[in-house]
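Lay summary. Proteins are chains of building blocks that fold into shapes, and those shapes determine what they do. In this project we predict the shape from the chain. Here is one chain we studied, written as its sequence of building blocks.
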Amino acid sequence: MTVQTAIDLTPFNTLALPGKAARYQRITDPGQLAAVAPGERRFVLGCGSNLVLTGDFDGLLLHMAIAGKRVLREDDEAVYIEAGAGENWHEFVQWTLAQGCPGLENLSLIPGTVGAAPVQNIGAYGLEVGERLHSVTAWDFARQTLFTLDRAACRFAYRDSLFKQEGWHLDGRVAIVSVVFRLPRNYRPNIGYADLRQELAERGIAEPGARDVADAVIAVRQRKLPDPAVTPNAGSFFHNPVVERTQADALLAAYPKLPHYPQADGRVKLAAGWLIEQAGWKGKDLGPVGMYEKQALVLVNRGGASGADVRNTMAAVQAAVREKFAVDLSPEPVFL
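And here is the predicted shape, written in a compact code that computers can read:
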């Protein structure tokens, strides 16, 4: 694949923001990465579903499109499945279910690619991808070699990983080329979230299998979240904030209906969508950008927005939540 120049990036980000890449290369094989100059400025892109494009990019944009998926091996406790970084995440999850390998169904319909999933440690409905990940193989541009990290080395945390830390994936030091998942044989459906239980109950399913859970997740997400192909968006735009117990207690005394989730370290996670809605931003726009009318956590491009428009709306929402609740919201997407 040859390097292209002055490529329009609007189709490569789900917020449909304008911008051009000075140089662009579609990567379909890990061997192509060896030809990239170690010192060249670069950005590694999946499908752009977690990206805010703020304008033109003057470096080399590497679009990861490495395909392939296979059952790698099995043992008494788990099945190990490998997938290329460019595989569509939702299609990959559905493929694992078709192979009779449950474990990822709660992450159905999340936009993105397999290679991007561990960077953000994507999660939904009580599951994070780091819980099912066995190892990641990546290309190190400085050392010009492939290397593998196990789950512990990836340092997974809430919407965080080693790859989001300075000097790693997002700074162009490495490019993830494949991921191995460990899917347990002892399957137990994860239906702790009320929305899932309600959806399954409405379907008359008392003892759901993995396919039932996947179908319920898909139905709930389709009902609540906009299709990026119809309404450009980057999914959940803000992290659910985690605050100290004392602050959470004070907020709950004033707002008893505030959804909250105690954490292992004693802190409390709050529902960002609820905070945004109560601050008056559900369905509200600022110019061509606003918060979705069915889910206040989702920032949408109503048409013709720029990266600056996104920044302005983000700042306005953050200010409104801070003023009402004294809670700071941080964005999930990467800004380029």
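What the prediction tells us: The chain has four domains: 4-64, 69-184, 194-224, 233-327.
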